[in-house]
Amino acid sequence: LVNCLLDTGSERSLIRSDVADELDLQGPTRAMTVKGVNGLHVRIADVRRVQFRLTPIPSKGLEPFNEGIELTALSLPSLCDDLVATPTPWFCKDKIPSLPSNEITPDRVQIGIIIGLDAYFQVLGQGVRRGGPNDPVAIETIFGWIVCGPTMRQTANRE
What is the pLDDT of residues 75-98, one digit of tens each? Predict the structure, then answer.
């Protein structure tokens, strides 16, 4: 089981090296410069290009998708800092009945795979649920529903 982050800001999909090693993924290695925000350039000596199948955990109430997707990713020692799992916003639950009703305990989550633009649209399903103009949007994926947008109500005097 690995946590994935859908990231439209990444051109390529990435996998943490320890996850690739655990899965015994093999592939050619080469040196590469990774570019990031604010002109950041990092030279990494041994970037491995690996291929694997990414499949969702079977779940009740989800439309059955094919057997996941074939993903080609670059293996890097570190992808991003741990993220905080965010509970489903309370104001989404009534508008999007397909969302899970169980609460997520806010906790740090380690990301093992970043799904970049090279594979982003392969994981999207057909469903989109919208609330009001300033509410988040729920999007169906092969992993279930994800919520994009603001996760907390903004007050008028808060920036």
Answer: 998 888 787 776 665 555 565 555
Report whether 141 contacts 125 (CB < 8 A). yes
- The model's pTM is 0.76
Are 14 and 113 a contacting pair, CB within 8 Å? yes
CA-wise closest residue to 141 among 110, 115, 159, 118: 115
Place of tokens 């990301």: 111
The residue behind tokens 């570190």 is 78
> How many Cβ atoms sit within 10 Å of the Cβ of residue 89?
19
Q: What angle do CA 111, 81, 77 make, to 5 degrees?
A: 70
Question: For the range 99-102, what are the long-range contacts, defined as Cβ-Cβ under 8 Å and sequence gap of 24 or more?
Answer: 99/138, 99/145, 99/147, 100/144, 100/145
CB 144 within 8 A of CB 102: no
Strand partners, 129: 138
| Residue type, position 18, single letter | D
